[in-house]
Design goal:
Strand content: 15-25%
Shape: elongated
Distance between the termini: 61 Å
Largest sheet: 9 strands, mixed
Number of domains: 3
Helix content: 25-40%
Radius of gyration: 29 Å
Number of strands: 18
């Protein structure tokens, strides 16, 4: 029986949160605003309107490229990408084609096992290539109301970065992990909220299936010299889970066709999240169908070395994760903290405020991880909480004895379990005692006292 290998590449669209749109001064914050209230002759494509590039959008596109390890091209240009759709008033989109801002990067996904012999594992588990990062304008938005389709042009002209990967993925789990990591990176850079519910991060997998010779086994996509003769693009997915489901469905659908001796059609498909299926939308265009040519109203953009060097990439999540692990924080806590830039900033600001050698990064992270309502907790309050937790607890021995006797009487089965060799059973009793003591007891003293009482002949409960 033949074996099949999925070949998957990604196109990710990220809206930048600049104040104004890509080529005009209209407000770029369109979400929830009255339809068509944030438009002008430029973003409506009126005759004679001239586009002027947004400098901050260019800077942020370069920042994304740098963070993804791309080469920054000193000379780039904008192009006209022609197609006709109701949400594109000009009949073309200002995008980039053969001379984008950034090319040839990669994202490494670290191993889920972060420590080897107590040393952080420096080797990436997998590496996925970035083909290009380019800048373009977003389109309007179609609204389907009853039997009518309306167009809201508030989104038209919002700066949009497109990140295109190499076809380096061969399963949906890797795609999901990559996209989750990319979202965190984008948020660390502060250039976008990357909120898929609001459409500021939109996902489009390109999926095909390669037929392998019997016995070749699994091999990375990049070692395959020839790609399939077709690809299917699933458009505008707004959930990591939906991307995974769409890929799994498409791979199975395409394999069924290949098994019949058919070549799947090259097309663009949508994803129905309720039915968990993809559906055909239109035949997929090739580059020549868009009739690309240089945007005549915008001259080529030339970047100096000084300008490129002035764009600084902050510490990224994987770097922060490794730093926290080196500081003694367990992997799961470090991973949880580094998924949220606000939590990382809270740790950093608390460390900066801390003047005590007795308080470590681990102490601060433990409070932030384990305390409810930490979002509103300021650094000086976090330090107060750490100091409070580090203070020795005074145990009321007389009260503790009464509580232990009560807990033992009320939990005879647990006591018998402990006596029969289930030593971990005592931890349940410790928890019960600590709850009765309302935290006013040292846990080690509670445990020792419980064991001593259970083992004494007077408190022994026989079967």
């Amino acid at each position: 029986m033949a074996k099949y290998a999925p070949v998957i590449g990604l196109e990710i669209h990220v809206e930048l949160k600049t104040s104004s749109k890509m080529f005009c001064q209209c407000n770029a914050d369109y979400f929830g605003k009255t339809p068509n209230s944030q438009t002008c002759p430029v973003c409506l494509g009126m005759p004679g309107a001239l586009p002027v590039p947004n400098k901050k959008a260019v800077e942020w596109a370069l920042l994304i490229g740098k963070a993804l390890g791309c080469k920054i091209n000193k000379i780039s240009k904008f192009d006209r990408k022609h197609y006709f759709y109701p949400d594109l008033p000009k009949g073309y989109q200002i995008s980039q084609y053969d001379e984008p801002f950034c090319t040839g990067g990669a994202v490494e996904i670290k191993s889920q096992i972060p420590m080897i012999n107590k040393i952080p594992n420096p080797k990436p588990q997998k590496k996925f290539g970035i083909t290009r990062v380019h800048l373009e304008e977003d389109t309007g938005k179609l609204l389907h109301v009853g039997s009518e389709t309306l167009v809201d042009f508030n989104r038209s002209g919002v700066p949009l970065v497109e990140i295109v990967t190499e076809p380096d993925f061969d399963n949906s789990d890797d795609v999901k992990r990559f996209l989750e990591e990319l979202q965190v990176i984008i948020r660390y850079l502060g250039v976008s909220d990357a909120d898929m519910e609001k459409g500021t991060m939109r996902l489009e997998p390109n999926i095909s299936v390669k037929k392998l010779n019997v016995g070749t086994g699994h091999c990375p996509v990049r070692t395959r010299k020839e790609l399939p003769s077709y690809k299917v693009e699933v458009k505008n997915i707004n959930s990591f889970r939906f991307v995974k489901q769409a890929i799994d469905f498409e791979v199975e659908r395409q394999i069924e066709q290949l098994e019949k001796g058919e070549t799947p059609k090259q097309e663009t498909r949508g994803f129905d999240a309720k039915k968990v299926v993809t559906y055909s939308q239109r035949s997929k265009e090739e580059a020549q169908d868009y009739r690309y040519f240089p945007e005549p109203d915008i001259p080529p953009i030339v970047l100096t070395d000084e300008y490129i060097d002035s764009i600084k990439v902050p510490t990224l999540p994987q770097q922060k994760l490794e730093l926290f692990i080196k500081q003694g924080i367990k992997y799961q806590d470090a991973f949880t903290i580094t998924r949220d830039k606000n939590m990382v900033d809270k740790v950093d600001r608390t460390l900066k405020l801390n003047s005590s050698d007795a308080i470590s990064t681990k102490d601060i992270v433990n409070v932030i991880i384990n305390r409810k309502g930490v979002a509103d907790l300021q650094p000086h309050k976090i330090l107060e909480e750490v100091k409070k937790r580090k203070q020795p607890v005074t145990t009321d021995v007389s009260k503790l004895t009464k509580v232990i006797n009560k807990i033992i009487r009320e939990n005879e089965k647990v006591v018998r379990d402990y006596q029969s060799g289930k030593v971990n059973a005592v931890m349940f009793l410790v928890g019960q005692v600590m709850r009765e003591m309302k935290g006013q007891a040292d846990a080690n003293i509670v445990r020792e006292s419980l064991i001593k009482k259970i083992q004494s002949s007077k408190s022994r409960i026989k079967n």
